[in-house]
Design brief:
The chain has helices spanning 2-15, 30-39, 42-61, 72-116, 120-146, 152-160, 166-190, 193-196, 212-234, 244-263, 269-279, 287-307, 310-322. By secondary structure, it is mainly α.
């Protein structure tokens, strides 16, 4: 009896079509039926089609790769942190190179002044010889990491011509100023007292037989020449950049010979800031900031607009944007 009933039931299942569950008869399944009914409504179908079309258009028109659309905020935050990590060695290098430059430059000027005494020609020769060796050494060591600016007007020139990020440039200048103070502090505390109090021992002053206007204009012209050399050689794509440190040294020493008697040849605000902070001597200090930046701005803008090849400038700016 039971076997007959089981066989009859199996036959009905095999022959009859799949039974449709009456969701309306079950209270738990009524919401499902209602939702299915709404989905079949013409207005609901139209809304769904419109929404899918708009969403697809937004996704396909987005320039962001499909694989990177998820977690945009997290990726942006990580990228920002990565940029800071990449800039850290550069900023540290600028701090160290400026500290070294100020230390040895102040020491060289102090020693040359003591050795040369009243012989101005000998003092100038000793200072030029010291910087001819000092500048290339520091530049060659620091260039692979940061470009070895160790001078705010170089950084400023690259910023205003678009071949350096403004954020990175500001960090460079801060590091240079702090390093300059540290280097000058070390020089003035390690040298004997007789060298510390010696006239012109690392300090930038206006010689007594020259006016502030003459010193200002001397710094403008000296800074103009210096940045003109920087823009022409260091950023050149023709191989001249390999000799950049020597060109920088020549520019500095030539300015020391010409502009030194007029304004003591600063052309480096961080170099002037260090001794001023350590000694508290601030007379005419504004000249060592305004004049070099003015001369640098004129040289950088004119060179970038009229001398530097347009494709080269465009390439340099593209490298900055891509970094």
């Amino acid at each position: 009896m039971n076997s007959q009933m089981l066989s009859s039931s199996m036959q009905r299942c095999a022959v009859a079509p799949r039974a449709t569950v009456r969701t309306s008869a079950c209270p738990l399944l009524r919401p499902v039926a209602q939702m299915r009914g709404l989905a079949q409504h013409p207005h609901a179908k139209a809304f769904t089609s419109y929404t899918q079309t708009k969403l697809h258009a937004q996704l396909t028109s987005s320039k962001t790769p499909r694989s990177s659309r998820r977690g945009v905020c997290v990726v942006a935050a990580r990228s920002e942190a990565a940029i800071d990590e990449e800039d850290t060695p550069k900023i540290a290098t600028e701090f160290i190179t400026q500290a070294l430059f100020n230390y040895f430059s102040c020491s060289a000027v102090a020693i040359a002044t003591q050795v040369g005494g009243s012989n101005a020609a000998l003092v100038t020769f000793l200072m030029i010889a010291a910087h001819m060796v000092l500048v290339p050494l520091i530049a060659y060591v620091g260039a692979p990491a940061s470009g070895a600016h160790f001078n705010p007007i170089i950084t400023f020139s690259f910023m205003i011509t678009g071949i350096m990020k403004v954020k990175t440039g500001i960090q460079y200048i801060i590091a240079q100023c702090v390093g300059g103070v540290l280097g000058a502090y070390a020089a003035f505390n390690l040298l004997p007292m007789s060298k510390q109090v010696n006239e012109l021992a690392g300090l930038h002053v206006i010689p007594g037989d020259h006016t502030v206007t003459q010193a200002f204009m001397g710094e403008v012209f000296a800074s103009f020449l210096f940045i003109w050399v920087i823009m022409g050689l260091v950023k050149s794509k023709k191989g001249w950049g390999q000799f950049g440190p020597f060109a920088i040294a020549l520019g500095i020493t030539f300015n020391m010979w010409i502009t030194g008697p007029i304004s003591s040849n600063c052309i480096n605000p961080a170099r002037a800031l260090g001794p001023a902070v350590v000694t508290g001597f601030w007379e005419h200090h504004w000249v060592w900031w305004t004049a070099p930046f003015l001369g640098a701005a004129l040289a950088a803008k004119l060179y970038a607009k009229y001398v530097m090849p347009k494709d080269q400038l465009k390439e340099l700016r593209a490298e900055v944007k891509a970094a």
